[in-house]
Specification:
- By secondary structure, the protein is of the alpha+beta class.
- It has a single domain, classed as Aminopeptidase (3-Layer(aba) Sandwich), CATH 3.40.630.30.
- It is 32% helix and 41% strand.
- It has 3 helices and 5 strands; from the N terminus they run E-E-H-E-H-E-E-H.
- Strands 1-2-3-5-4 form a 5-stranded mixed beta sheet.
- Strand 2, helix 1 and strand 3 form a beta-alpha-beta unit.
Amino acid sequence: MDFLAGGELRERGGRYVCHYRGRGRRRWGRGFATEAAKAVVQYGFDRLVLHRIYAEHFTRNASSGRVLQKIGMRHEGTMRQAHKKWGEYLDTELYAILRSDLRELSRLRRP
């Protein structure tokens, strides 16, 4: 079986961060990461009864930012040189969604 996309919620100090990932460039742009992230957020609100879920992505990875926007997350800011990867400090973008945001999005999407 070939892995397409997946996601999970990780607890960090009493807060929950959404992690999702897609695999393989040939699958980019087909909505798999968006569906995985959406399912993770829905699970967090429905099953874990969370109030807020957040996610980060490296600034130079704009595609991840678009995924987070598509699932209703709002950009909350840029964290300068927040993580060290590949031997350099990289900026990250912070996004979050509240339970009330999800309810509002659901209401607006109804026909």
